[in-house]
Design a protein that fits this description.
116 residues, mainly beta, four-stranded antiparallel beta sheet
Length: 116
């Protein structure tokens, strides 16, 4: 069974940091593009960051560029999202996503709340 399981969310004060993890299992994702999306209450799901397992090339939404870093640990089949300088507007449910052509998978999401 293919699974993407996120963890690491929580409550953090503005300016703080969190690291999200996405553990992938059930198949090989070596040729997949891995990404993080987020969805705030009342808003559409939006792209945050992406990385390829093989090349390590990364992409970021303008809103998180310079603050968030996406990375992979191939040995652990895990994708990370290191988030720093967090702002209240970063509050959302963060989802892990894997895609190869029309084949895609989503995790269940992890809540990140940035508040004082």
């Amino acid at each position: 069974q293919v699974q993407l399981v996120e963890s690491g969310g929580g409550l953090v004060q503005p300016g703080g940091s969190l690291r999200l993890s996405c553990a992938a299992s059930g198949r090989s994702f070596s040729n997949y593009s891995m990404a993080w999306f987020r969805q705030a209450p009342g808003k559409e799901r939006e792209f945050v960051a992406a990385i390829s397992w093989s090349g390590g090339k990364t992409y970021y939404a303008d809103s998180v560029k310079g603050r968030f870093t996406i990375s992979t640990d191939n040995a652990k089949d895990t994708v990370y999202l290191q988030m720093t300088s967090l702002k209240p507007e970063d509050t959302a449910v963060y989802y892990c996503h894997a895609a190869l052509g029309s084949d895609e998978y989503w995790g269940q999401g992890t809540q990140v709340t940035v508040s004082s």
